[in-house]
Amino acid sequence: MKKTFRRNLRMASHRYDEEEMDRIDTLAEIDQKAFWKVVNSKCAKSKQIGRELDLDGKRDTIINGVLRG
């Protein structure tokens, strides 16, 4: 059961990836603006944006606060 589920999930993921690549390929030839909109939406976004701490009235990003101690 688990093996079948994983196989089906893998196949569905592969189909989705192929469809997206075909879509991107078509957009690259037809509509550059739409192409870049799709490509940029697929890029990984930084997960650090908007993470701030407010300690004693000082605002700092979590990473900078941890690095400085």
Summarize the SSE layout with pairings.
Elements: H1 2-30, H2 32-42, E1 52-55, E2 58-61, H3 62-68
Antiparallel strand pairs: 1-2
Beginning-to-end CA distance, first to last residue: 49 Å
Low-confidence stretches: none
Our count of domains comes out at 1
Structural class: mainly alpha
Number of strands: 2
- How is the quaternary structure best described? single chain
Q: Please outline the major beta sheet.
A: 2 strands, antiparallel
Along the chain, the helix and strand elements come as: HHEEH
The shape is flat
Strand content: 5-15%
> Going across the major beta sheet, what is the strand order?
1-2
Helix content: 55-70%
Walk me through this protein's architecture.
With 69 residues, this protein is mainly alpha-helical. The chain has one domain. It is 68% helix and 12% strand. The protein is built from three helices and two strands. Strands 1-2 form a two-stranded antiparallel ribbon. Helix 1 (2-30) runs antiparallel to helix 2. It starts with a helix and ends with a helix. The mean pLDDT is 78.
Descriptors:
2 strands; 3 helices; single chain; two-stranded antiparallel ribbon; 69 residues; mainly alpha
